[in-house]
Amino acid sequence: MTVRRVMGTETEYAVSQPGVAYYQPVKLSFDVVGAAADDATRHIRWDYRQEDPVNDARGTRLDRAAARPDMLTDAPQLNITNVIAPNGGRIYVDHAHPEYSAPETTDPFQALLYDHAGDRLMLAAARAASAADPEPEASGHPVVLHRNNVDGKGASWGTHENYMMRRDVPFADVAALMTAHFVSRQIWAGSGRVGIGEASETPGFQLSQRADTIHAKIGLQTTFDRPIINTRDESHSTGAFRRLHVIVGDANRMDVPQALKLGVTSILLWTLEHAREAGYDLDALLGSLQLADPVEAMHTVSHDLTLTAALPLETGGTTTAWLMQVALRRAVYEVAAATLGTDTKGEPAWEDRETRNIMAMWGQALADTAAIRHADDDTRLTMKAEAGRVEWLLKWQLLEKLRRKIARATRATDTTGTGAASWADARLAAVDLSWAALDPAKSVFARLAAAGSVERLVDDDALDRAAHNPPETTRAWLRAALVRTFPADVVAASWSHLTVRKPAAGVGDDATGVRPGDLVSLDMSDPLAFRKENVETALAEADDAASLIERLALRR
């Protein structure tokens, strides 16, 4: 029983050009992605052939003619919009945003590392795109990136999680358990937001940036009527597995909530995969957590800073987000005890360090949120330890102190005695935006982190290494190593395939510059088969990319 599984993240960044009233976000996105490329690898295309955005996990397929154009992400782009990052990830333009997709990893702490390493790659690309003395890929004007999810005016962009899981688990069970989890985990996973409502129609502060943009329980779409459970069935793996694609999460800056999101979701998926064979009554758990209106509950939890809001259940009665998280953790413990046995303290015999750490952190998150729940606002302002682990609380502390300072100044100059600082004050929204700035010189979060106010799980040196080196435990290692070793030979890449040209290949007439017979492809559908230990020797002995691909293909 483990949190270890193939997983990864995708982060869309807000892009802007300061100092002008109007700018073109799509062009700025192309500027950033173009600046992330280099001359040796710029020619490599993204291979869209394995993508299948209209395949639905509920067993159906959406007719392509009925799909909105923005759903058809497998349509090749004519412009250079994709870059294979040096760590094996992908940097590309997604609609009106530059996006970083982290390479495949195998545990939540590794996934955290490569997720936040992407911030460094994207900041470097934005700085290169902003070069005052334009290089070929520089825009010549400042380009600024923020790691957040909303503009406060109705627009939203995503921070996605991806988990490989067994396909034989009924998707109805997945949807039921994950709905309960995604609604309730906001109490410790939210990154905090100024403004209530999709377009900040009501002044206030809420737990989650993403919650108000969610309007459906389940669906295939990601950019409209966003669902709690996304059903896109595109595994990028073998037929035995599916990829759970999660679109409801926040763009966390802090390490602890990001690792917890990944680790707790992973252990709950393990529970789904093994509960019935362990003799656990999964149906009873799912029935007890079925919300009467999950979408309304998603909004209610995010808007409720008391953490005590009653959430109506389908079977009658109510629960709270905190109690739902307690029930989920108890279920994991019961399945673990039945599967692994327990030690002398009654603790399940967790199989690895990552799982022990995530379970301990989950318990701490529930203790933290319980303490927050029972504290008044004045006490919450003093909760340094909890704020170092709960992102929305740390952001709220900063903003509430500023709000009170503004209120005191307003009362001092208001002869009527009615002056007060509202959450609608533009200065609060500006600080909220500063929290998300990637540039440390402009980020209030970066200053707090440098001052030791944030509990860190990865250090700067590890982030620097992860930005430029792939994880060794997945196929991302081969993807990055092949591009680095034989860049001129690589024609196209995707998550599951690599295509290279044979030595001395002739020049063809199509857009790739080579004839189909000059190409060799490798199917890497098994994300663990091409990790470093399996392919490093073959790479070192290869004279060219094609001979390496042919040798590895013979092993399958």
Portion in helices: 25-40%
Count the beta strands: 20
Structural class: alpha+beta
Radius of gyration: 24 Å
Distance between the termini: 28 Å
Low-confidence region ranges? 415-419
Averaged pLDDT: 92
Strand order of the largest sheet: 6-7-8-1-10-15
GO molecular function: ATP binding; hydrolase activity, acting on carbon-nitrogen (but not peptide) bonds, in linear amides; ligase activity; peptidase activity
Family: Belongs to the Pup ligase/Pup deamidase family. Pup deamidase subfamily.
Keywords: Ligase
Pfam families: Pup_ligase
Compact overview of the structure:
Helices cover 39% and strands 15% of the residues.
Lay out the secondary structure.
Blueprint: E1 7-12, E2 14-16, H1 25-36, E3 45-46, E4 55-56, E5 60-61, E6 82-84, E7 90-94, E8 97-101, H2 108-129, E9 144-146, E10 159-166, H3 171-184, H4 186-189, E11 193-196, E12 202-206, E13 214-219, E14 226-230, E15 241-246, H5 255-274, H6 282-288, H7 294-303, E16 311-312, E17 318-319, H8 321-340, H9 353-373, H10 377-380, H11 384-387, H12 391-413, H13 426-436, H14 444-450, H15 460-468, H16 476-485, E18 490-493, E19 497-501, E20 519-523, H17 532-541, H18 545-555
How would you characterize the overall build of this protein?
The protein has helices at about 25-35, 110-130, 170-185, 185-190, 255-275, 280-290, 295-305, 320-340, 355-375, 375-380, 385, 390-415, 425-435, 445-450, 460-470, 475-485, 530-540, 545-555; strands at about 5-10, 15, 45, 55, 60, 80-85, 90-95, 95-100, 145, 160-165, 195, 200-205, 215-220, 225-230, 240-245, 310, 320, 490-495, 495-500, 520-525. It is of the alpha+beta class. The chain has a domain at about 470-555. The strands form 7 sheets. A 6-stranded antiparallel beta sheet has the order 6-7-8-1-10-15. α2 (about 110-130) crosses α15. The radius of gyration is 24 Å and the shape is globular. The protein starts with 6 loop residues before the first strand and ends with a helix. The model is unreliable at about 415-420 (pLDDT under 50).
